[in-house]
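Consider the tokenized backbone below.
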């Protein structure tokens, strides 16, 4: 009998396996999908260019995951967020050079951090109407929320995920492949969805597979959907820990561009554009030898793009970026079929990540009896990120009774 069955081969599951290996404990990872990495999923375009379908950057350079990436010596490109603009109803309005200090009321921020003011919606941190509007759009967009819902100001202020971040030359697959090698691919079973986790004498059963313990690393969307059955005490603990958490809705449309267009039009490397019209979209153009344009669709737009054909997706992006001079006539320069992600419809994810509502705090990973719960939703330093997912898996094993 194996010591631990880990449900999910994403960053949390792989991190937990690494920590178990260091303790000399045996483990089996069962993954519902056919891929290692969970939402950290990379697809190769026909040209060989890697496109990351889920997380876009590796945030948290001072995290445990940052140390692992450096230890592996994985080459990458650092986006410092230095070429960022905003367009509102077709006009350039702000280069965002003062983000976020220029929009946040420092007195309110300090009072919230000290506990002298209660938590509030992130937009209420704004020092004026313009600041409140910018914070509202950021909070809703980056957290995958639909207005009027807004995330926690406290989490915005304490989140250690820095803007921009590292993009690996081989995509996130370069990282997940190395992690899979470290934990042993022979210990990973793909295409193995789980429906039941039950306590038995001296251990647990996971769909009939016996183990001493079970670790559940699935995302908030799957936890909320009840796809996995648990004993009542475990289910109650999950319900308590997920209060105040909302599933973030985000999808990407990814276009591969002719590199000659980027050079000819002098498109800045890592151009980031917030385009505000009837709703807000964020667009990132990578460059640097990987000529990819990624549009982030959030909230209701994330649901809408899942139904688009490749042609419709191309038109969607071209319409959004019309105000950006360097991206005029974009459709002429797309060299491969657009990629449209569908994280909401995917039965093994049912959403992108998680957002925290005002007045709540994220739970640390925990054990209820012989069942442990961890994942990107359960880390307060690097919430809803790869760094947080990795840290959560490690912390769960550190807390092993």
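A designed sequence for it:
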């Amino acid at each position: 009998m194996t010591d631990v069955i880990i449900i999910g081969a994403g960053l949390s599951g792989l991190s937990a396996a690494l920590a178990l290996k260091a303790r000399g404990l045996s483990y089996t990872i069962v993954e519902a999908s056919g891929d290692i990495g969970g939402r950290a999923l990379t697809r190769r375009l026909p040209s060989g260019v890697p496109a990351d379908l889920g997380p876009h950057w590796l945030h948290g350079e001072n995290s445990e995951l940052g140390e692992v990436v450096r230890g592996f010596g994985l080459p990458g490109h650092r986006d410092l967020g230095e070429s960022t603009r905003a367009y509102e109803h077709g006009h350039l309005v702000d280069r965002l050079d003062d983000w976020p200090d220029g929009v946040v009321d420092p007195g309110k921020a300090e009072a919230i951090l000290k506990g002298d003011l209660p938590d509030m919606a992130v937009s209420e941190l704004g020092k004026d109407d313009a600041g409140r509007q910018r914070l509202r759009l950021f909070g809703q967009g980056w957290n995958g929320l639909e207005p009027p819902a807004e995330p926690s100001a406290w989490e915005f202020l304490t989140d250690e995920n820095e803007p921009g971040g590292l993009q690996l030359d081989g995509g996130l697959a370069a990282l997940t492949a190395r992690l899979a090698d470290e934990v042993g691919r022979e210990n990973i079973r793909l295409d193995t969805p789980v429906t039941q986790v039950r306590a038995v004498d001296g251990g647990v059963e996971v769909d009939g597979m016996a183990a001493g313990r079970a670790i559940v690393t699935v995302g908030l969307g799957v936890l909320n959907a009840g796809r996995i059955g648990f004993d009542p005490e475990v289910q109650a603990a999950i319900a308590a820990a997920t209060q105040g958490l909302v599933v973030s809705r985000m999808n990407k449309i990814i276009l591969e561009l002719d590199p000659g267009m980027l050079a000819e039009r002098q498109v800045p490397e890592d151009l980031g554009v917030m385009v505000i019209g009837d709703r807000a979209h964020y667009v990132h153009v990578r460059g640097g030898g990987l000529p990819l344009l990624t549009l982030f669709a959030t909230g209701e737009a994330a649901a809408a793009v899942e139904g688009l054909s490749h042609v419709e997706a191309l038109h969607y992006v071209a319409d959004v970026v019309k105000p950006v001079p360097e991206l005029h006539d974009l459709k002429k320069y797309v060299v491969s079929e657009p990629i449209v992600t569908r994280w909401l419809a995917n039965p093994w994810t049912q959403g992108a990540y998680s957002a925290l509502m005002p007045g709540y705090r994220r739970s640390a990973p925990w054990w209820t009896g012989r069942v442990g719960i961890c994942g990107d939703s359960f880390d307060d330093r690097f919430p809803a990120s790869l760094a947080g997912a990795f840290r959560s898996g490690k912390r769960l094993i550190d807390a092993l009774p």
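The mean pLDDT is 95.
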